[in-house]
Amino acid sequence: LDISSNDPDDPLVQVTVTLFVNDAPIVDFDPDTLSFSLNPDETDSLTMTIYNLGAGPLDFTLNVTPPGGALSMVKPGVARVDEDALSQEFREDMARRTAVKGAPNILPETIQVGAGGDVSPYPQMLNGEECFGSSASSFSGGLRDRGNIFEVTTATTLLEYKAYLSIPQDVELYFFVYEGDVYQGIYTKINEVYVPSSGTGEGFYSSGPVNVPLQEGKFYYLGVSWGNVTVTYFRGSETTPLPTSFGFLRTGIPSTLAGFPPGPTIDQTWDGFPPYYCCVVTGPSVGWLSTNPSAGTIPPGGSMDVQVVANTAGLLGGNYSAEVHVLSNDPVTPDTAMTVNLFVSGTPDIDASPNPLDFPDPIFVGLSETRSLTIFNTGNIDLNVSDITSDNPDYTVTPTSFAIPPFDSMTVDVTFAPSAAGPSTATLAIAS
Q1: 102 shares its domain with 239
Q2: Would you say 126 and 81 are in contact if contact means Cβ atoms under 8 Å apart?
Q3: Sorting pLDDT into bands at 50, 70 and 90, what band is 349?
Q4: CB atoms within 10 A of CB 109
Q5: Are residues 117 and 248 in the same domain?
Q6: What is the separation of C-alpha 431 from the centre of its chain, rounded to a whole number of angstroms?
Q7: pLDDT tens digits, one per residue of 275-309
Q8: DSSP states of 370-426 as a string?
Q9: How many domains would you assign to the chain?
């Protein structure tokens, strides 16, 4: 490249440009659609074959979503957010952050640096993402992890995690999820995404698509750790806990807990710290469908068989649909999806308790006593009870006809009004 300018000392500067071109992979798969027809509490698998029709290696990840659930997620690396999705306050905060970045900040974490403050309100919602923290404070260091503790009050699924970082040179990253039964105590690692090459620059670095169930009543440490490179990371100044769509962000984690690489467990004792700058993407999952393997690399001209597994445990009778997304480094088709259909046959299943039903105390003639009988439907479609009859008129039941939804129950009253002294028995017949 020849660069001409009005610089009197160097009016012409020549720059050599070197470009290495990789051969592109081309993704394809077969069949276009998979269909299952299963009974309740049954598991089956079908084969999906992924092909690489190109001349370069194909790296792919599989993710299961509800129908039409296009992921539109970045691969591990820096996430670029559409400007139209950003609020004015968020854009101003980005401008402030860019204006003050420069030499690495190696001040202790108790020092607030930079211009401006937190954007408001928080969390920011960007195309379904929830973002927490800001650039109110920045810190730097290597061989450490940072993130936040989340309390889940409404079960959901973690689909992606992003951490806002400034990375001056390529470094290994680990995005992780730890789960705990209590807020402060031992957490166990349940998910990890390894990114061998982070890339450089300032922005949201992404785990890429994940599929991690977040259970109601549990606590989770979501974060990222990096290798021996001085990475700048950011923390807001909001008071925690902060509300989320699925619970609360309870605290930021201002010290290394997971380590690099992340260990199998952590001992969480922190409370009340502001959140580190991050975004989380959560949403519904398709619990009845999974793949094995869920990721891989296919050489040029090669193929790989993937088992697509359907499990009907806990499903109602009826039709279900989902999509298996193939996310890959195919530059033309980075996200392509196969439709999976499932038909679950419907069967009601009746049970009653207690059986036998006892009236333990003596009852005088002319008086009555009522006990409860619970009728269960352990099947996966409605149970229709048409009548309940007794072969002894001293025993009556109310009500005698009703419908019980799948996996539910109904309690009826059984009344004993003896017409004569002495032992008494009866058989109740439940028609359905």
Answers
A1: yes
A2: yes
A3: confident
A4: 16
A5: yes
A6: 43
A7: 999 999 887 667 788 899 988 999 999 999 999 99
A8: EEEEEEEE-SSS-EEE-EEEESSTTEEEE---EEE-TTEEEEEEEEE--SSSS----
A9: 2
Shared domain check, 274 and 171: yes
Report CA torsion sign: 392, 398, 402, 404: negative
Question: Which backbone phi and psi does 95 adopt, to 5 degrees?
Answer: -65, -40
Q: What is the pLDDT of residue 310?
A: 93
120 and 267 housed in the same domain: yes
* Model confidence at 122: pLDDT above 80: no
Which tokens in the block code for residue 286?
């398709």
Q: Which residues, at least 6 apart from 355, have a Cβ–Cβ distance to it below 8 Å?
A: none
Whether residue 266 contacts residue 258, with contact meaning beta carbons closer than 8 Å, is answered with yes
The answer to whether residue 81 scores a pLDDT higher than 80 is: no
Of 252, 283, 314, which one is at a domain's C-terminal end?
A: 283
Q: Where are the beta strands (DSSP E) in 231-378?
A: 231-235, 242-244, 247-253, 265-268, 278-283, 289-292, 295-298, 303-311, 318-328, 335-344, 350-353, 369-377
What local confidence, expressed as pLDDT, does residue 283 receive? 76
Residue 214 in any domain: the answer is yes
What is the CATH classification number for the domain harbouring 361?
Answer: 2.60.40.10
* Confidence grade of residue 20 (pLDDT, cut at 50, 70, 90): low
**Coil, strand or helix: which one is 300?**
coil
Is residue 58 in some structural domain?
A: no
Range of the domain at 197: 67-283
Per the domain annotation, does 190 fall within a domain? yes
Q: Do residue 111 and residue 257 come from a single domain?
A: yes
The pLDDT of 94-118, averaged and rounded, is 29
What is the Cα–Cα distance from 359 to 375, expressed in whole angstroms? 18
Domain boundary among 242, 263, 283: 283
Within-domain flag for 82 = yes
Considering just the CA atoms, what is the radius of gyration of the chain in Å?
Answer: 30
